[in-house]
Structures are given as C-alpha cells and as structure tokens.
Write a structure and sequence with these properties.
CATH topology of one domain: Alpha-Beta Plaits
Number of strands: 3
Mean pLDDT: 88
Radius of gyration: 28 Å
Distance between the termini: 78 Å
Order of helices and strands: EHEEHHHH
CATH architecture of one domain: 2-Layer Sandwich
Helix content: 55-70%
Largest sheet: 3 strands, antiparallel
Strand content: 5-15%
Length: about 140
C-alpha cells in the first residue's frame, strides 16, 4: 500500500528535484501525483512500500532541515549584499507605482467597508431615534 511522503504544493522546483534525487539515490520506490487540471487532487510524492517509510521520512527530514538552513543563509547573504528586493527597496525604487497601489487598496477598502460603517450610528442619532420610537409608542 502506498503512503504519502511529501506534498508538492507551493514547493520550489529545486527542492522537489533535491527530494527526488535523494529518494532515487537511496533506492526508494516512489511515484508522483499532480494536482490535476483543476487543482483538486494532491500533488505529492508517494512511497510505494510502507516498510520504507520510517527510513525515508528520517532522510527527508534531514534533507529539509539542511535545505532550510541553506536557503536562509542564501537569503541573509543576499540581504547583506543588497540583492534581495525588500518592500522598502521596491517603494524607493518605484514610489509612484507603490502610491498608486496604496490608493487602489484604499479605494477598494473604502467601498468594501462603507456599508458596514453606515450601519453604525452616532450617540446623537441613537438618542434621536430612541425619542422618535418613544413618541410613536405614546
């Protein structure tokens, strides 16, 4: 019976290649499934033999911890070298475009939230409506 070993959703291609190479180098029988045309299936690497799962999982965990450290180190060195685009770098490089984005976001947020804010009444409006209701009851 097959067992799920590694989900492929949102995994970079280089990490998938590393996992596949690791599993092939250690002679594990695996197969891949895709998410399908509409993305409703599980994109994953499956292990064909259940008995191999503990050993494959241990190798995969070791690979992932090493891979994470390498990627984080590369990111930190890129930050120090100035090769990684941060939010502020992008803002100072393209201020007009970023301001247009903020205006569009504010516009969408305003019109999305306006109906909810119109439901809220001020204390003066609440007193006025309470007086009107009381006068109608008498």
């Amino acid at each position: 019976m097959s067992v799920l070993l590694f989900r492929l959703k949102d995994v970079p291609e280089e990490e998938i290649e590393g996992v596949v190479a690791l599993l092939e180098a250690n002679h594990f029988e695996t197969f891949e499934t895709s998410a399908g045309r509409w993305g409703i299936s599980i994109a994953a690497i499956w292990l064909k033999n259940n008995e191999d799962y503990p050993r494959a999982r241990a190798l995969l965990d070791e690979f992932q911890s090493t891979h994470v450290r390498e990627v984080q180190a590369a990111y930190q060195s890129g930050l120090q070298a100035g090769d990684v685009e941060t939010f502020w770098y992008r803002y100072w490089r393209m201020p007009i475009q970023m301001m247009l984005y903020f205006i569009v976001i504010a516009f969408i947020a305003y019109f999305s939230l306006k109906p909810f804010f119109s439901m809220v009444s001020t204390p003066e409006e609440a007193k006025k409506s309470a007086v009107e209701v009381r006068d109608e009851d008498q």
